[in-house]
Amino acid sequence: MALEEKREKRPAVTPMMIEEDAALRNGSRGLPPGPWAEAAGPRPRTTERHIAVHKRLVLGFAVSILALLAVTMIAVLLSVRFEECGAAADGPPRAGGNGSLSGAARQPPGAGQTPGRPEKEEEARGREAAAEEEEEEEEWQRRRELPPWARPRLPRHLRPLHYNLMLSAFMENFTFSGEVNVQLEVRNASRYIVLHAHRMHIEAVRVAEDKLAGGVRVARSFLYPQTQVFVVVLNRSLEVQRSYNLKILYNALIENELLGFFRSSYVLHGERRFLGVTQFSPTHARKAFPCFDEPIYKATFKISIRHQATYLSLSNMPVETSVFEEDGWVTDHFSQTPLMSTYYLAWAVCNFTYRETVTRSGVVVRLYARPDAIRRGSGDYALNITRRLIEFYEDYFKVPYSLPKLDLLAVPKHPYAAMENWGLSVFVEQRILLDPSISSISYLLDVTMVIVHELCHQWFGDLVTPVWWEDVWLKEGFAHYFEFVGTDYLYPGWNMEKQRFLTDVLHEVMLLDGLASSHPVSQEVQQATDIDRVFDWIAYKKGAALIRMLANFMGHSVFQMGLQDYLTIHKYGNAARNDLWNTLSKALKRVGKSVNIQEVMDQWTLQMGYPVITILGNETTDNVIVISQERFVYDSDAKPKDPALGDNSYLWQIPLTIAVGNTSHISSEAIIWVSNKSERHRIPALEEASWLLGNINQTGYFRVNYDIRNWRLLINQLTRNHKVISVSNRAGLVDDAFNLARAGYLPQNIPLEIIRYLSEEKDFLPWHAASRALYPLDKLLDRTENYNIFNEYILRQVASMYLKLGWPTNNLNKSLVQASYQHEELRREVIMLACSFGNKHCHQQAATLISDWISSNRNRIPLNVRDIVYCTGVSLMDEDVWEFIWMKFHSTTAVSEKKILLEALTCSDDRNLLNRLLNLSLNSEVVLDQDAIDVIIHVARNPHGRDLAWKFFREKWKILNARYGEALFMNSKLISGVTEFLNTEEELRELKNFIKSYEEGAAASFSRAVETVEANVRWQRLYKEELFQWLRKSLTH
Ligand SMILES: [Zn+2]
To answer: Alpha-carbon distance 1000 to 929, whole Å?
Structure first.
């Protein structure tokens, strides 16, 4: 599953910060910190149209209720007759409490109106059942056990072997009905069947022993919403080793929210068209059919979907047969799936069209999208790289793709960027449709990486599935890591895994994981409502960074062999992290190396945070250096969450690579395993003027610090000939230095001295790293009175490269894909820094471009720098420009353009305009719900608006929490976005007071926020003056 990226683009620094199109782009290329961490995506809410649809539904519902009342009254009048007839009509015994179902089951319109039992009897049975239930609950209480349905996990006595699922989709009123037959294996005798079912109306349930006639009588059955299960209580126990068939008839809504089986729409030739599609991961299959909705319960599935013939239906497998009915309906019967979990099962009912291609091994790949997009060829890029990527993965993993086909479905709305359903992967349109002639490099990169990610899941996730959600990082970490490996396969010159991985994954997640309130990458969860929480940037990015470290210390070819074994051994099954460690250890052993991978990796996956290694070499006389480790935290005063884990107890086994260099040469690296608090190691050839460099190419998940003398030697080296040190280490030195200084491990001047060499740096990556590392520092300083000293210093470092590179011309955009991505991205980065820090030429250029647009009404601003120009224009120019951008925001239909226009509006210096924008942001008619969060966050990043956004957030918290509270990701993104740059004592007090009065359900986000603000305040108190003093001295020289 790919999360909607909060892609902060670079440190668009002060007066105007510009941000990239967060919703459009995936991958973490982009702005600095900020919780990618808050995984999961926006769940857009009701729009105007949806309200209209909703009204129609409500009306329909009211009519059906009236009809139901009428039927019931007649039934009551006739009740005597019915009772005389004896046994209830046909169908299974209707359990009491079931038919008229508990509050949780919402009865969809037009459904569930099977002739009911006479009301009196229902009532009587209801009372009877309630009494039984009470008795049963008491019995469990006496045994001091939770009843099987009240436990957070399903009881283990049953296992589903096969599901037959028959669905009818009624797109005209957005309901569906289903019949599921589950073949069950009994492991332990029990009277209870407990499986997941949520937000549906159960009509009937029947249990039969396989191969024998005659059912097993159902005593009662009920939905239990607290744990989202459906419970069947039988009159007698199911017997061990026998298999039974459970049949359930049910119906539900095709929801208007974006989980389970849900609907969305698009307009074609002026006409609105609807489609139904599913999103089951992680715990929403239970909203679409009763099932054992935990990844360990792999089973085979045979699905049939009945729908109007004007639609087509899709599922994981190809259609085997279609049966047409005379009334314009058709039933598609899909082939049986291999063993699989419920969360990546999928189906869709739509009237899309497609294009297709076939891989060398015969897999049919189709891209389905709205007909106009298919006609324009917007899906061709995705289709083409998908074919090549399947071939890449089949070759890399040495395991063929498992299904006969793979459909990629481009939908208008989806809660995540994409979802890897086996054989039917679903993407939000902006992450898969692409027109090469008008797409920027980053857009192309985003589309590419999302596809690489989902395809990796066809193996990591779908074929081999984590046992439980605590190890979701096993699949997400791999898919995220392979985004870079797979993109390198498609674009070999881009060096994604060696370079871009550092800024976008490693540096970014170390910001989050450097908080004392972080959490381990492997985190225990039980409750369904908590499972969303594990899909966060720690799982994705730290997971990927740990996997990359592992691949590097194992050696890439041994690592690859190990993965091939792992997939072969566990295919169609589940695996936990220890299964992976064991397989990889064996692969290492085969090449004669012995490392206990489980022992090493447990320290990295079960402990939160990461170490900072300190290498002391200056006092040695005999080539001996001292290496020590401690946990890195931004605020050393912050208390660890678990007091038993005082920082002293944190130790890692660290694969440290070290090289020794002098002015013209660097030695080959050597691995040193560091496992103690402090160790002495002998280094050959350590001469007087030699420097030491640790973590070669930044393959390790840790920071490295040195004695000051060594830092000076490194700075000297960078200034004299930076190419002796690799590009990735140059970026790494920049990032480590800034963050070590921010946390107080290093004097404040060291990072500022390092970036002086940038005037000679022609590679993108070190600039990108510097730009991102400067961002939080800029935010700490942007409201201080001496800010201009800092500003001037940065401008000096940027000026010469800005002059050298100049601005892109517009016609370049046509060939961006072919153009050197390094060069264009570097130019963009430097322009952004120049404009953000107030380079006069940059400002003039932006103003000229905006004026030209306004006067000619033709937008000739180069695509790759549009966001920078808009933001700069709004912040510098008068209110008319703001109004002009506001008007363009309303009139444009291109999603990516809309987003950067909206963000540009937050760049204004005018507090009235900022307030106006904040207030407008809560109006769903003007700003989409998921975009409102970005507006508030961006105003908070603007030094002129930070206090306004903070005040607005507190005043509107009730509304905001009601809107986003259920979507954990949105809520924590908002909380951290508004608070992360607060840095005064007063603001810290306000934050704490606010939390005291309002904390509701977002405790983790709030404790992260407090820790971040405390660290900011602490930095101001301890280090701000030191920094300014050095800057003053430096500028007068
Ligand atoms: Zn994923």
So the answer is: 20
If 0-12 CB within 10 Å is exposed, 13-18 middle and 19+ buried, where does residue 688 land? exposed
Distance (Å) from CA 1009 to ligand 1 centroid: 27
Q: Which residue has the tokens 């959490």?
A: 519
The catalytic residue among 122, 179, 429, 454 is 454
Positions of E strands within 952-997: none
Q: What is the pLDDT of residues 466-502, one digit of tens each?
A: 999 999 999 999 999 999 999 999 998 889 999 999 9
**Residue 602 pLDDT exceeds 90:** yes
Q: What is the pTM of this model?
A: 0.86
Name the DSSP class of 13.
Answer: -
Q: What is the mean pLDDT of residues 182-206?
A: 96
CA distance linking residue 908 with residue 911, whole number of Å: 8
Give mean pLDDT, residues 133-137: 78
137 is catalytic: no
Question: Ligand 1 centroid vs 460 CA: distance in angstroms?
Answer: 9
Q: State the distance from the centre of ligand 1 to the C-alpha of 40, rounded, in angstroms.
A: 11
pLDDT for the residue 286: 97
Q: What is the DSSP letter of 426?
A: E
> How far is 720 from 661, CA to CA, in rounded Å?
13
* Joined tokens for residue 622: 């005999």
- In angstroms, rounded to a whole number, what is the distance separating the alpha carbons of residues 840 and 822? 25
SS (H, E, C) 658-679: EEEEECCEECCCEEEEECCCEE
Q: Provide the 3-class DSSP secondary structure of residue 454.
A: helix
User: Ligand 1: distance of its center to the CA of 776 in Å?
Assistant: 28
Residue 98 in this model has a pLDDT that exceeds 50: no
Q: Which long-range contacts (CB under 8 A, 24 or more apart) does 428-432 make?
A: 429/369, 429/373, 430/23, 430/24, 430/895, 430/896, 431/2, 431/26, 432/367, 432/369, 432/379, 432/382, 432/408
pLDDT at 738: 97
Report the separation in Å between the CA atom of 480 and the middle of ligand 1, taken as the mean of its atom positions: 7
Spacing, Cα 1027 to ligand 1 middle (Å): 42
